[in-house]
Design a protein that fits this description.
By secondary structure, the chain is α+β, with helices and mostly antiparallel strands. It has 12 helices and 27 strands. The strands form 8 sheets. A 6-stranded mixed sheet has the order 20-19-18-22-25-24, with no helix packed on it. The protein has a 4-stranded antiparallel sheet with strand order 1-3-7-6, with no helix packed on it. The longest helix has 25 residues. The radius of gyration is 32 Å and the shape is globular.
Length: 586
């Protein structure tokens, strides 16, 4: 009880102080106890975005603990980007200037499909409180360019071409098709130009060049695969019939193919073969192939060849290559029964009509005769009449006017060395260059090389359970010890699905996990879970290295390094199986 003698002013001050203290303390306590909230402002739920978009998050206050995947692997971190139907999370980059507004940027570009962006509860505010529950949005990526470019890179690596070439082709495709409308109808033909240029400028031998060009066509057309529409923003899943506008795409792609290869019969033959042999995979029927699409390919390419080349011999060579390529493509079709004789008739009639419409005086008999020869020949040889006056011979191989051939300094080289070649062009009786051999082989390794794996060896890497843990298997052997040689190049193939969550790297210590003591000299494609890890052993490499898993310990094995007497400037040969392709020269 308050005494009556107490000063009223003191009583007022005391009561006001108590009231202020209670209300102030209660408010601060409520604010401090609230968990942080997040809004995903972009993309919004069920929206459509392009594959290289950057996403936006905004929290109610400053937060910490935002992490994401560094690899395309099992989901980890507090921000997760994954396919909507489940599977590995994608690598992302996360940034902020105030710890409130954040950007999430996928590493690389996403292909068409549905994805989920999730903010987990592994995030804290400054009071160490976490969000009450995860927040996520599901969205669709509709990005024809990223889809085509990503598929192209993957397909080139699958046929054992280098990762550098695959990256260059992908970049070339993105550059040449970057301004096109966002649909396959426009992107696929434009992407071909950039990918073609990347391969043409790579400096590979003729065999690898033709393999790469053929793979480009097959990869580009694999994106169609009977899609319900090539131009719809929300095209349905894969269906069993071709879209009605496929004819437009094929004509546009063929025009670019013929333009790029208008001076090389070999290249046009290779690309025509790929165009025809890819038609079943995109959903064409046998009748459509025999009549409609072969006619479109032949007519379009013939018109380009006639316009580009005015010399009769050059026209003969190019059109003969076109016809032989179409027949070869038809013979490669195994998914259905196509009538090769019907295709021959369609090819001959279409080529004749197109050539006559361009130049009524041109005699097309040389090219049409070559088509008949191609029908009756199991293994195609030079399809141009070798008695043509504008031809010459190099070491028994005919080189036609206006064409080129890869020649070599020697017919064979010692194991560990590289064949030295040059391009020799023939025109108007003059053959450039001086190398005299039309083929070159690398001799087998000497018996003493049994102490180490041969140059260009590819090791097949898989992962299997052994006891209570997983182990790497090399060519079927658990944690196999390897012996490699300085100056040689080796390939670690990790395409098997068992390696998806086990990124491979080379280290200077055993164990693995957290990429401890990673060794990077001479290594490309490190931390690989799919594709190839390539290791060109430096001359100063440690005598002992290890192949390890970056996420798990005690999975790998030892790599012993042998010293080398091979000159440092000697370039390693590609894997042996890449040297088996037989391509017809002009």
């Amino acid at each position: 009880m308050i005494s009556k003698k107490t000063n009223p002013l003191i009583i007022f001050i005391l009561l006001a102080s108590i009231q202020w203290s209670c209300s102030s303390g209660s408010g601060d306590e409520n604010i401090a106890n609230l968990p942080p909230k997040v809004a995903i402002s972009y993309p919004t739920d069920n929206s459509s975005v392009v594959g290289n978009a950057v996403y936006s998050l905004k929290f109610s206050e400053a937060v910490t603990g935002l992490t994401g995947n560094n690899l395309n692997a099992a989901c980890e971190g507090s921000i997760q980007l994954s396919p909507d139907k489940g599977g590995n999370c994608y690598p992302i980059s996360i940034k902020s200037t105030d710890n409130i507004s954040w950007t999430v940027d996928p590493v690389g570009e996403l292909s068409d499909g549905a994805y989920t962006l999730t903010v987990t509860t592994d995030i804290q505010n400054l009071s160490a409180l976490s969000p009450a529950s995860p927040t996520s949005v599901t969205f669709n990526v509709k990005d024809a360019l990223s889809t085509v470019a990503n598929q192209l890179k993957s397909d080139l690596i699958k046929v054992d071409l280098s990762k550098d070439l695959a990256e260059a082709a992908k970049a070339g495709a993105r550059t040449s098709a970057g301004s096109e409308k966002n649909d396959l109808l426009n992107v696929i033909p434009a992407a071909f130009d950039g990918a073609f240029d990347a391969v043409a400028n790579a400096g590979m031998n003729e065999n690898l060049t033709q393999v790469a060009l053929s793979s480009i066509i097959e990869s580009l057309l694999s994106n169609v695969a009977g899609q319900a529409s090539l131009v719809s923003d929300h095209s349905a899943g894969r269906v069993a019939v071709l879209p009605p506008n496929f004819s437009s795409l094929l004509k546009s792609l063929t025009t670019r193919v013929a333009t790029k290869s208008a001076s090389s019969s070999t290249t046009l033959q290779t690309l025509a073969t790929a165009l025809v042999s890819s038609l079943p995979a995109v959903g064409a029927t046998a009748t459509e192939i025999e009549i409609t699409y072969v006619r479109s390919i032949v007519q379009t390419a013939t018109m380009v060849a006639m316009t580009t080349n005015t010399d009769k011999t050059a026209r003969d060579i190019i059109l003969a290559g076109l016809g032989a390529g179409v027949i070869a493509g038809a013979k490669m079709i195994t998914e259905m029964n196509v009538n090769v004789n019907t295709i021959q008739t369609t090819t001959t009639e279409s080529m004749t009509a197109a050539a006559n419409s361009s130049d009524i005086k041109y005699d097309i008999s040389t090219a049409t005769t070559a088509i008949v020869t191609a029908i009756n020949t199991e293994t195609l040889t030079n399809i141009v009449d070798e008695s043509a006056p504008a031809s010459c011979s190099l070491n028994g191989q005919t080189v036609a006017h206006g064409s080129a051939i890869t020649a070599y300094q020697a017919s064979s080289v010692a194991f560990g060395n590289t064949c030295s070649g040059e391009t020799r062009s023939y025109s108007d009786g003059n053959l450039t260059g001086s190398y005299a051999y039309t083929s070159c082989t690398v001799n087998p390794a000497s018996p003493s090389s049994s102490e180490y794996s041969a140059d260009g060896t590819t090791f097949k890497i898989t992962v299997h359970s052994s006891g209570y843990s997983n182990k790497y298997y090399v060519d079927g052997t658990e944690t196999k010890s390897l012996r490699l040689k300085e100056g040689y190049t080796y390939y670690f193939n990790v395409e098997d699905s068992s390696t998806n969550n086990h990124p491979l790297f080379i280290g200077t210590s055993s164990g693995g996990g957290s990429y401890s003591n990673e060794y990077s000299s001479g290594v490309t494609g490190t931390r690989a879970t799919n594709g190839l890890l390539t290791f060109t052993v430096p001359t100063d490499a440690p005598s002992t290295l290890y192949y390890n898993c970056g996420l798990h310990s005690s999975m790998g094995g030892v790599i012993n390094i042998s010293s080398s007497t091979v000159p440092a400037e000697t370039l390693p040969a590609p894997p042996h199986h890449l040297r088996r392709h037989h391509i017809i020269s002009d």
